[in-house]
Design brief:
- The protein has about 210 residues and is an alpha+beta fold.
- The protein folds into two domains: about 5-85, Winged helix-like DNA-binding domain superfamily/Winged helix DNA-binding domain (Arc Repressor Mutant, subunit A); about 90-205, Beta Polymerase, domain 2, CATH 3.30.460.10.
- The protein has ten helices and six strands; from the N terminus they run αααββααβαβαβααβα.
- The strands form two sheets. The protein has a four-stranded mixed sheet, with helices on both faces. Strands 1-2 form a two-stranded antiparallel sheet.
- Helix 1 packs across helix 2 (about 30-40).
- The radius of gyration is 21 Å and the shape is elongated.
Length: about 210
Amino acid sequence: MDLTRPYTAVAPTLDPGVLSVLAGTNRPLTGREIARLLGRPSHSGVGAALDRLFVQGLVDREEAGRAFLFTLNREHLAAPAAELLAGLREELLRRIRNAVDAWAVKPSHLSLFGSAARGDGGADSDIDLFVVRPETVERQDDVWRVQVDIFAIQIERWTGNPVRIAEMGEGEVAQLRKDRPAIVDELRSDAITLAGLDVSTLLEEA
């Protein structure tokens, strides 16, 4: 799944993208504003999509001088589907948090980083996770290993993306900060903490 444009997993046309933008705000938007938010260099395709959606009643349109302003018609039967498309990335983060909350052995820290955290990956991009084991848990601990392995499978089933987990023990974090491999800068700039200590606190405490 393309986490930058997750709605393309359902339909590769512009229509769900336009709906996703409108579902993410209550502010009326012009066609040009919608095109910009979608990263489209031309607004002609967006205009055609807005015309189709207006005819279907999913989008409301009102004149504003020489332009039109568009909003999602949230009373439409299909509006909940548009809101679901707009919230797919947030739904992934919610599922990850809930899955980790159910672990028998909780991590000291778990965060999403890389392109999935930045929101600039493609459909075949890895989903990168940084996991820190509690100091008392060995890497090959049976309970720990099983829950981490199942977790990776779950995320791949939810998204279709390959999952990469960078894992270390609490005692190794100090050395990580001292050596400053590339992952440290990535974590500092991009990471979204999903469980345990905040990533900035974790790296500072090291």
